[in-house]
Automatic annotation (TrEMBL):
Cellular localisation: Cytoplasm
Protein name (Swiss-Prot/TrEMBL): Ferrochelatase
Pfam families: Ferrochelatase
InterPro entries for the chain: Ferrochelatase, Ferrochelatase_AS, Ferrochelatase_C, Ferrochelatase_N
Binding-site list for Fe(2+): 206, 286
Protein family membership: Belongs to the ferrochelatase family.
Organism, as annotated: Belnapia mucosa
Length: 366
C-alpha cells in the first residue's frame, strides 16, 4: 500500500489475458507447440500429448506461417492488447480510490504468465484482478489462462487476494459498445449496397470441437447470449442475422454452422453479408486473414452480392469503458461478475463456480 498526501492507496494489478501470437516467422512453430500441448486444447492422455501436440504443430506450421506472412510475419495481437491495457489503466486511475496497473499475460507466446507473475509480484500489489479478453468463458481460453496463471503465481511466490472476472458475455455496456460498432458498419454497408439487395449479419465466433461443448463448456451458450444482447441493443426491426463458427483447425466434429456454410446460404438467398467477429475483441490473424482475405474470396467465388466486415473492438472507447465498469463493479462486489447462471453475477466465488469446476477438470487430465 502506498500513501499519497497522507492517504493510504491500495495497489491493484489488473492482468489482461489473451492468447498471444508469434512475433516473427521462426516463432510460429514454438507458438503452435505451446498451443497444441496445452491439456485444455488437446484432450488426450498426458503421456501422448507432448508427442502428438508437437506433431500437429509441425503439420500446421506452414499454413500458419503463410497467414502471418500476410501480416508482415507476425501477429499484431500483443501491440493491440498493450494499447487496450494502457487505455484501461489510464481510465481506472482517473477514478481515485486505488492505484491500478494493467499487465498483459499471453497464453502461448510472450509475455507469458511466469514472467508476468514475477513482474506483478515485484510491483507489490495489495490485490490482483484477472481480466480475460474473452467475453465468453471457454475452458480452452479463459479456463486455460487462469490455470496457467495460478501455477505461475505460485512459482513466483505471489500470494495476494486474487479475483477472476470469468466472463461478460451479456454485460449491458459491453453489448452496447459492440452494437455501436456493428451499427456504424451496418449503416455504411446499407448505404453502399443497392436498395434491393438484402443485408444479413453473420455473427462469426471462433469454433470449438463439439466434444468440449458436450462436456459442459459454456462457450457456445454464452456466444448465443452475446448475440441476443447485441441484437437487442441494435434495435433494428426485422434484422436478418445468424450465428456461425470459424477457424476449425482439427479433423474432429466442430460446432456449427460453419462460417463457410453461412456464406453458401447467403449466396443461395442472394443476400449481402456483414460479418461481425463476436468472440474476439482484437484484430489478429483470424480476423485480418481468415475473415478479410479467405472468407471474402470465398464469398466472391460463391457470388454473395456484398461482403463487409465489422472491425474488432481494439481500443474503442466504448469497449474500454465497458471493461473499466466491469473492473470497478467487480472491485465493489468483491467477487467475480458473470452471468453464467442467467443472472448478472456469478452465484458463487470463482473457486466454486461452474467455470472453475470446468477448469479443474482440465487439470485432472493434465
Ligand atoms: C483445437 C484448437 C483450437 C481451439 C479449441 C481454439 C479455441 C479458441 N481460440 C480463440 C482465439 C484465438 N485463437 C488464435 C489462434 C489460434 N487458435 C488455434 C487453435 C485453437 N483455438 C490455432 C492453431 C491458432 C494459431 C493460428 C492458426 O494456426 O490458425 C488467436 C490468435 C492468433 C493471432 O493472430 O495472434 C486467438 C485470439 C478463441 C476465442 C477460442 C475459443 C473459444
Ligand atoms: Fe484459436
Ligand atoms: Fe463463473
Amino acid at each position: 500500500m502506498r500513501s499519497v498526501r497522507g492517504v493510504a492507496m491500495q495497489r491493484v494489478a489488473v492482468v489482461l489475458f489473451n492468447l498471444g501470437g508469434p512475433d516473427a516467422p521462426e516463432s510460429v512453430r514454438p507458438f503452435l507447440e505451446n498451443l497444441f500441448t496445452d491439456p485444455a486444447i488437446l484432450r488426450v492422455p498426458g503421456f501422448v500429448r507432448p508427442w502428438l501436440g508437437r506433431f500437429i504443430a509441425r503439420r500446421r506450421t506452414r499454413a500458419a506461417t503463410e497467414n502471418y506472412a500476410i501480416l508482415g510475419g507476425r501477429s499484431p495481437l500483443l501491440e493491440l492488447t498493450e494499447a487496450q491495457a494502457s487505455a484501461l489503466e489510464a481510465q481506472l486511475n482517473t477514478g481515485g480510490g486505488a492505484e491500478y496497473r494493467c499487465f498483459v499475460a499471453m497464453r502461448y507466446w510472450h509475455p507469458m504468465s511466469d514472467a508476468v507473475a514475477r513482474a506483478v509480484r515485484d510491483w507489490a500489489p495489495d490485490r490482483v484482478l484477472l481480466l480475460p479478453l474473452y467475453p465468453q468463458y471457454s475452458t480452452t481460453t479463459t479456463g486455460s489462462s487462469v490455470a496457467a496463471w495460478e501455477e505461475a503465481a505460485a512459482r513466483a511466490g505471489l500470494s495476494v487476494p486474487t479475483t477472476t472476472l470469468c466472463c461478460y458475455h451479456s454485460d449491458p455496456a459491453f453489448a452496447a459498445a459492440t452494437a455501436a460498432t456493428v451499427r456504424a458498419a451496418y449503416d455504411g454497408a446499407r448505404a453502399d449496397l443497392p436498395p434491393e439487395v438484402p443485408l444479413r449479419i453473420l455473427f462469426s465466433a471462433h469454433g470449438l470441437p463439439e466434444t468440449i461443448v458436450k462436456r459442459g463448456d459454456p462457450y457456445q451458450w454464452q456466444v448465443e447470449q452475446t448475440v441476443a444482447s447485441v441484437v437487442e441493443a441494435l434495435g433494428i426491426e426485422g434484422l436478418d442475422h445468424s450465428i456461425c463458427y470459424q477457424s476449425r483447425v482439427t479433423p474432429q466434429k466442430w460446432i456449427g454452422p460453419s462460417t463457410e456454410a453461412e456464406l453458401e446460404r447467403a449466396a443461395h438467398d442472394k443476400v449481402a453479408v456483414l460479418v461481425c467477429p463476436i468472440a474476439f475483441v482484437s484484430e489478429h490473424s483470424e480476423t485480418l486473414v481468415e475473415l478479410d482475405v479467405e472468407y471474402r474470396e470465398e464469398a466472391e467465388r460463391l457470388g454473395v452480392p456484398g461482403y463487409v466486415r465489422v472491425p474488432a473492438q481494439n481500443s474503442d472507447p466504448g469497449f474500454i469503458g465497458a471493461l473499466h465498469d466491469l473492473v470497478r463493479r467487480t472491485e465493489a462486489a468483491g467477487r467475480p461478475l458473470c452471468s453464467y447462471a442467467g443472472g448478472r453475477q456469478c452465484p458463487k466465488p470463482f473457486g466454486d463456480c461452474p467455470h472453475a469446476r470446468a477448469t479443474a477438470r482440465i487439470r485432472e487430465v493434465a
